[in-house]
Amino acid sequence: MHSERITVGSGENTGAAAADAGAGAAPEAGANGGDGGGRPRRALVAALMLAMGLVALEGTIVATAVPQIVGDLGGFSVFSWLFAGYLLAVTVTLPVYGKLSDTFGRKPVLLAGMSLFLFGSLCCATAWNMAALIAFRVLQGLGGGAIQGTVQTLAADLYPLRERPRIQARMSTVWATSSIAGPAFGGLLASYADWRWIFLLNLPVGALAVWLTARHLREPARAAARTASGGRWAGAAARIDWPGALAVFACGGLVLFALVQGGVAWPWLSAPSLGLFGAGAVLAAVVVHIERRAAEPILPGWVWRRRTIAAVNLAMAMLGLLMVAPMVFLPTYAQSALGLDPVGAGFVMSAMTLSWPISAAFSQHVYRRIGFRNTAALGVGLGFLCLASFPLLPHPARPWQPALLMLALGAALGLFQLPLMVGVQSTVGWAERGQTTASVLFCRQVGQSVGAALFGAIANATIAARLADAPVPGLPSHLDEVSRALEHPDSLTAAASAHLRAAVTSAVDHVYLGAAAAALAAFLILLLAAPRRFPVLPAEPRS
Question: Rounded distance, CA 139 to CA 134, Å?
Fold first, then answer.
């Protein structure tokens, strides 16, 4: 560990007195609203919440308008790339933006990211076919990566450790509100206006966020901030590792493309899948070679050499993986197995997003007493119990039963995620916080991509096996026909419809068991790899 890694007392806040000492009574030197608090800082927090809201809404609001988009532009066979392309762009650019924000400051990176996102939104609204819309969604994602990583980093810059849960809870509330409001708002626009307004309405909201950020975000000079790689000075004279950035982008894009398309466009063990994964492995070796030789690497080795950061990265990857179960498969279960309409299915899923921010805000009272690691382990342990309990629900279940389970899951994961994010950001100084935050978000995004591919394969295999052994006639003979049969259950006999619903339930049960295994893996990572007390740094003196 570097000599600059200074612990306060035992290394982590464990009580009220230690909280004051470890977090620092004075705000850190970092981004501020001119006076470090008060009205300017509130305006800046509003700007960050608006910017994060744009990113949070992007997936849910577009999803509800897909039928209208496909009806207007065509391209049904490739519409899934509206989401996959955006996800790829966000994921592979997170490490790049993290390094840029540590080198040049948060403000220019955030303003550039928001401007690129808004330009991409404008282009999406003018798309003339599905290929153009997918390309413009990728452009949006290039800006979204800057917003997502830099906003989370600024949240740590703005507040000292003791107050940091406040801003993180607000960010969680933004995501929760977006997950509920997005589908309804997107459906209203698509039904009563035009789907292009989904993208056009980003412009005034984003313009307000840009104006507030440009006006109120003032960063003190960082000429004396040192980086972790060889003690070089950070600042305008720092060199950017553009070959490393290009290699990371190419490697991440190729591997995530293989994960998204595998099992969908071609079988997992087919030549395209093996070729893409093989090329990804070669590019990964190229990335390691470039980053070892770079003076200022995009993916610095210290991110993985430091025990705390590496353990948090792995645990957050497991969080991304397990989140696929409630976010992707629960709506299908609610509509297909429970017979709910899309609105009802949304309410079942939203139970988790309602309890998550409340639990996250409460978590500070827990980790001040038992520490970051133990709080996160408690949360993911409870999450394991919730996920493992899902297959025990009766069939058919009543809607309140999975909703209650998701309410408990949200409360558990609120105790898991926020202490890890606050804790790991508190173990590094300003000049390393952007890369640290980006590495955590990057690992979570990769985990989500792997989870989508893995659990999709599990669900498809389960349904295919149930259809092959079906004791009743009239069922779909191919997986591609299952969704059509679920949308029009009247086309099946009562016995065939009941068997198909049972097959979907069994598939989702298996997915939740896989998610429970990911939660158990995160629990073991925290206990075996993470330090019992995070090496929290003292508050930085005000510049």
Answer: 9
Residue 233 belongs to some domain of the structure: no
Stretch 42-67: mean pLDDT, rounded? 79
Give me the phi and psi of 276, to 5 degrees please.
-65, -45
> If you average pLDDT over residues 174-197, what whole number do you get?
73
Using CA atoms, how far apart are residues 212 and 210, in angstroms rounded to an integer? 6
Q: Of 115-119, 150-154, 226-230, where does mean pLDDT reach its minimum?
A: 226-230
Within its chain, how far is the Cα of 277 from the centroid? 23
Do 252 and 177 fall into the same domain?
Answer: no
Residue 386: how many CB atoms within 10 A of its CB?
A: 24
Choose the weakest-confidence range: 193-207, 343-357, 461-475, 522-536.
461-475
**pLDDT digits 0-9 by tens, 515-529:** 999 999 999 999 999
Tell me if 527 is assigned to some domain.
yes
Show the DSSP H helices in 65-105 as ranges. Answer: 66-73, 81-104
How many residues make up the chain in this entry?
543
Question: What does each C-alpha distance from 390 to 11, 232, 328, 509 come to in angstroms?
Answer: 38, 52, 15, 7
Structural domain total, the chain: 3
* Terminal Cα distance for the chain, rounded: 26
Coil/strand/helix, residue 32? strand
The CA distances from residue 124 to 133, 311, 357, in Å, are: 5, 39, 31
Q: Which residues pair with 218 in a beta bridge?
A: 32
Domain identity same for 63 and 203: yes
Q: Which letter, b or e, does each residue of 190-227 get, where b requires 16 or more Cβ atoms within 10 Å of its Cβ? A: beeeebbbbbbbbeebbeebbebbeebbebbebeebbb
137/122 Cα distance (integer angstroms): 10
The verdict on 440 and 404 lying in the same domain is yes
For residue 225, pLDDT beyond 50: no
Whole-angstrom distance, CA of residue 42 vs CA of residue 534: 29
CB 417 within 8 A of CB 364: no
Domain that holds residue 285: 241-295
State the pTM of this model. 0.77
| Helix, strand, coil fractions of the chain, as percent rounded to 5 | 75, 0, 25
Say how many C-beta atoms besides its own lie within 10 A of residue 336's C-beta: 23
Greatest alpha-carbon span in the chain: 75
467-475 long-range contacts, CB within 8 A, separation 24+ = 467/503, 470/496, 470/499, 471/499, 472/496, 472/499, 475/499, 475/500
